[in-house]
Specification:
- The chain is 23% helix and 53% strand.
- The protein is an alpha+beta fold.
- The longest helix is centred in the N-terminal third of the chain and has 17 residues.
């Protein structure tokens, strides 16, 4: 199995519940395709190096997971 790291930056204008739902959707895609989430790191709201779609901040969330891309191990 290969090891992956995925950083998700969520819009700062979303409510806490919407942020949780967005992150849950990303995790669901990973697990539905045979991935296994090993660790999570909710880094919280941080300033971006440069604005993205006029947003200067974003909610940072990191997922570490294992996944086999060649077969269904």
């Amino acid at each position: 199995m290969r090891h992956y790291e995925n950083l998700v930056i969520v819009k700062p204008t979303l409510t806490e519940e919407e942020i949780k739902n967005t992150i849950a959707l990303v995790e669901e895609v990973i697990t539905a395709n045979g991935g296994e989430i090993v660790a999570r790191d909710a880094m919280g709201m941080k300033k971006l190096a440069y604005p993205i779609e006029k947003n200067a901040r974003g909610y940072f969330y990191v997922m570490y997971y294992n996944c086999c891309t060649c077969c269904n191990c």
